[in-house]
Every structure is written in C-alpha cells, then in structure tokens.
Write the structure tokens for this entry.
Amino acid sequence: MNYPFVLALSTLVGTIIGAGIFGVPYVVAKSGIIPAIFYFLLLGGAVMLLHLFFGEVALRTKEKHRLIGYCETYLGKPGKIAAVFSTLFGIVGALLAYTIVGGSFLHILFGEFSGISATWFSILFWGLLSLFILRGIQFIAKAEFLMNIALFAIVFLIFFFAAPHIRVENFSLVHLEHFFLPYGVILFALAGWAAIPEIADFFKRGHEKKSLDNLIVLASIITVALYFFFALFVVGVSGENTSPNALQGLEGSLGGGIVQLGALFGLVAIAASFLVLGNYLKNSLRYDFHLPYAPSAAIAIITPMLLFLLGFREFISVLGIVGVAMGIVEGTLIVLLYKKARAFGERTPEYSLRLPKLLPYLVLVVVMGGGLAALLFSYFR
C-alpha cells in the first residue's frame, strides 16, 4: 500500500470537508434535485480544476509559498493585495459561520432544559474557544484529526439511521426561485485549495509528487460523492422541513437522541475547525503582517463576534456569500497564477496538465459569472 498517498489523500479530503457539509442539504431541499446535480457536476469539475491548477503552480515554484506568496511572486503587488483581502475575508467569514452553527448545535444539546437561546449559545461557544486561541494551545493538530473523525462519524451515522426513513415524495425536482441558492454554499463546501501546497510539501520524492494530480482528482470525487449522498439522505428524510444546519429537521423522523448525538459530533468538528482557523489568522497577522501579539489576537477573536452582534447570523447566507467571494477572487487568482507559472515557472513540474487552452477561461466564467449571478439573484435581491 502507498502509505504517503493514502495519508495525503485523507489529509486533503479531511481539509475540504468542513462546516459547509451541514449547509448543503438545506440548499438542495430549497432548489430541488435537478439544480443540485447541476451544481455538483459544474462546481465539482471547476473546483477540481482549480485544485489541479494550484498544484501545478506549487510544483513549478522553487520556494515554498501559500496563496499570498504565490500571488506576490507571479502577480505582483495587486495580486498580493487581492489574496490578502480574500484570505482575511474567507477566514473571518468561516469563523462567523462556525460561531453560528456551533451555537445551534449547543442549543440542540442543551436548549430544551436550559432555556438559553441559540444566540447566547453562539456567544458562549465563541467565548470559550477564543480563550484557547488566546492562550495558543498546543493540541491544534490533534483537534484537527479529531475533527475529521467526528465529521465522518456524523455523516455515516446519519446514513445508517436515515436510510429506512427516506421517502421519494420528499424530493422536489426544481424550484426556479431558488435556482442560484446552492452556488455559494456548495462552492464553500468544496473549496480546499489552501491545502494543496501543504500536500505538495508532504510528498518528498519526485515519483510521489507525480501522483499529486491523481490524488486531487480522487479527493474531488470522494468529497462530491459524500456531500451529494449526505444531502440526499437528509432531504429524503426531512423534505421541506430540512433545517439550515441539517440536523434539527431530522428530529421528527429519527428521534431526539440521534439528532443530539449528531449535534455532539458536529460540535466537536466545528470547534476544532474554529481553533485551527482562529489560530492561523492570529499567527498570519503576527508573522505575515508583523503586528504585535495583542492586536493580532484581538482582531482574530473579536472580528467574527462583532459581525455576529451586528446581525450576521444566517448560517446559509454567510456560507453562500463567503463561498461566492472566495470563488470569484481566489478562483480568478488561481487561474491567473496557473497561466503565469506555466510561462515563467522556476522549475519543471512533476505533472503538467494537458488541457484545451480555453478551459481555464471557462473556469473563470463559472466562478465569476456564476458567483455574480448568485449574489444578484439569491443574496442581494
């Protein structure tokens, strides 16, 4: 068995699968099965290509970078500024989404007998985890591993208990008024290009790096299939009662015990993600922007809660808007990086894509055109 390949594959799949999985069933229920299939195929293919583009950029560059560094190398200061904006916006948006859904999971677990609202549970969730970020905990990697276990556990738990309760009449074919709603949420859920340079660094030998393209394709197939079937199972049970966090709508059919167990697994997963991203943002502000520790920690901790207190509390809207913004900005940057690196790369890559010349521009049309349409017709109408 090729253990480096298997370990790298599990790392990439585990990185991609995050909070977005809990929002996918809701948008599938709202839009219908036909739009859902369309978006999984379209965005699954586009995101897979973006991952492949970014992988080739990493392999064509001698120095180790992340998105901001690659943009500075190949696109200059304007590219770096765009990457900085997108990175900060994406992380803060993700932390906000985790705060919202973390509060809803706590409410599922303790709301019935505590009398505390989901809003206050979100504030409690944020406050407790912010203390760990402030202290700089040492078990972040273990928390990340635990997150992956928890996410897969909740998915297969729901698969197992939901299967006997699926009803065909719970599926609708299409709701045109919500046709663009899934775009941002599914894009948010599928995007994992931040992990590609990490995976490229993980492979130490040339023959291992040659398998990076196959690994990306396989990881894309696994995640798209997992999301799609998770959505089918949840919507098949909940129908029009599918909740934004995927779990609460299952209670009538599966019982409170299963939903609470799912919320517990989900809470562990979301908490680990919050710690990883919060710590990453704090350290990025310290080391990349050379801010002192105190303001770095304050910005990383306070910004998501400030947005929450200002009224940004709709889980699906936050996922969708963040996903669209990341897709438009970072998707465009990755395509531009790919074109530049193929022309001015510093080394011969272990794999080089042989694609029609128009395909990168079609990916641009998908991320930019689709993203703008989603903003206009779903979030700002």
